[in-house]
Specification:
The chain has about 500 residues and is mainly β. It has 3 domains: about 100 residues, Sandwich (Immunoglobulin-like), CATH 2.60.40.1120; about 270 residues, TonB-dependent receptor, plug domain (Ferric Hydroxamate Uptake Protein, Chain A, domain 1); about 60 residues, no CATH class. The protein has 5 helices and 26 strands. It is elongated, with a radius of gyration of 32 Å.
Length: about 500
């Protein structure tokens, strides 16, 4: 055995020992099924074979009931499952359409009447009315619901308001480099947005300062969203608000794909007659497009899933600003002497009292006129950076419309490998890139307020995020599981 292999196996062993333990239910990235098998009189049936099959990828896991008739599947990839219970001398028990969610345990008890193997007791899967193994209060949204519900910008965080106790604060950090993924800020049960937490496939995905998602996964890549609003497990103790747990899709035995495009333009909008009567209607264009594809590499064994999303947002911000007229640029403010007097700082007392109004150059007195010889070179350089007015008057005499750009590119890839019925390895890689160019009223050199509505700052900025995750799970017994997870 070479040194690299030895180090790798040692790492897995250490992580396994650190994370192995007795299971109450399930892990942060998987769900679970447990229950009891009894006969018609209620007596426990030991040695019954229990099988669960993932409908999507046809992967089957098996176990047998213990002497108390209990069984447990502690680690199942989220999806839809069928459950089959068999025991010689008894009829088969079959339950179809059982939905398994990450972090949720489902209880399925089976009662087997006396009969032959050809006799079947079939039950349709229904969600349990009450989760008896956890006091957690949560809202679960699945892929079918995500695809059916309208989400602005193909952004799943907009669905947060469906959960009880969730409200929207007055301000949103939109079109901002600090929220490049355009997460949706919410208050949960009165807690501030910064108290919320986010997990993506069981890995930390919380921005440290604002409490936002670092990476917002496109709708097409989401298997389910679970928003826990209270009474979550102690392992999430640092969260005081709500906890998002997002699970991405995996491939199945059938090839599936999707494609979409959203396009919006301001060509149908009317011009604002106060700020756009000179520059005209801003030519805003918002274009978002992408798709996904998933399927088998080796049927029943290895699966892949990938998605891509691109957004091009061209915003033409408008402003009604004030720039100095020609007379002001030379120090002549005589036209506003009565309404806007300007006092000479070289006169009066140090505390500002007793100062007199500027009165022009020596020999040519004129009230409210600064002698051009007193204008410093720095002042003249700054004035040269400001544009000429394009409107009348001395206030709000400069109407401007400039293009701003906000571009996003993102892709996700995931692979699942069912090594054996007891060993599962899956990993994913996400890349996200965003570029911002928010113009100012007076250009790059002149500065001024940002023209784009909702932007807190102006200029050029970029955001590049990469996320890698590998998860290794092995079930030793129905009550013993190791889950080693590496993320960067």
């Amino acid at each position: 055995m070479n040194s690299a292999t030895y180090r790798f196996l040692t790492l897995i062993a250490v992580l396994s020992l650190a994370l192995v333990g007795l299971l109450h239910a399930q892990t942060a990235v998987t769900g679970g099924i447990e229950g009891n098998v009894t006969d018609a009189s209620g007596a426990a049936i030991s040695g019954a074979t229990v099988e669960v099959t993932n409908v999507g990828d046809a992967v089957t896991e098996k176990t047998v009931t213990n002497r108390d008739g209990a069984y447990r599947f502690p680690s199942l990839i989220p999806g839809t499952y069928s459950v089959t219970v068999k025991k010689e001398g008894f009829a088969q028990f079959i339950r179809e359409g059982t939905r398994i969610d990450a972090g949720i345990g489902v209880r399925i008890d089976a009662k087997l009447p006396v009969g032959t193997a050809s006799t079947k007791v079939e039950v349709s899967g229904e969600a349990p009315l009450l989760q008896t193994d956890s006091a957690e209060v949560n809202e679960e949204i699945h892929s079918t619901e995500i695809n059916a519900l309208p989400t602005f910008g193909n952004n799943i965080t907009r669905l947060s308001l469906l959960a009880p106790g969730v409200s929207m604060p007055s301000g949103q950090l939109d079109l901002h480099p600090e929220n490049a993924g355009e997460d949706f800020d919410v208050n949960i049960n009165g807690a501030s947005p910064g108290a919320n937490g986010h997990l993506l496939d069981g890995v930390e995905n919380t921005e440290a300062i604002q409490g936002l998602s670092i990476i917002v996964v496109p709708n097409d890549a989401v298997q389910e969203v679970k928003l826990a609003t209270s009474d979550y497990d102690a392992e999430y103790g640092k969260v005081a608000g709500g906890l998002w747990q997002i699970t991405t899709k995996s491939g199945t035995n059938a090839f599936h794909g999707s494609a979409f495009e959203n396009y919006r333009t301001s060509g149908f909008n009317a011009a604002d007659q106060f700020s756009q009567h000179v520059s005209g209607i801003p030519g805003d264009v918002w274009n978002q497009f992408g798709g996904s594809v998933g399927g088998p590499v080796i049927k029943d064994k290895i699966f892949f899933f990938g998605d891509y999303q691109r957004m091009r947002n061209n915003l033409f911000g408008s402003g009604n600003e004030t720039v100095p007229i020609d007379a002001f640029r030379t120090g002549d403010f005589s036209s506003v002497a009565a309404t806007d007097p300007i006092y000479d700082p070289a006169t009066g007392n140090p505390d500002g009292t007793g100062r007199t109004q500027f009165d022009g150059c020596p020999g040519t007195p004129e009230l409210n006129v600064i002698c051009p010889t007193r204008l410093s070179q720095a002042t003249q350089n700054l004035l040269a950076l400001l544009p000429q007015p394009n409107g009348p008057g001395t206030q709000q005499n400069y109407q401007i419309s400039r293009a701003a750009t906000f571009d996003q590119d993102q892709f996700d890839t995931r692979g699942d490998y069912f090594v054996t019925s007891k060993t599962v390895v899956f990993g994913k890689f996400t890349y996200f890139k965003a570029n911002f160019n928010t113009p100012t009223a007076y250009g790059v050199a002149g500065g001024g307020n940002p023209l784009t509505t909702g932007s807190a700052n102006a200029g050029l900025s970029a955001d590049h995020d990469k996320s890698v995750m590998v998860d290794y799970q092995h079930t030793f017994s129905p009550s013993l599981l190791t889950d080693a997870r590496f993320a960067f």
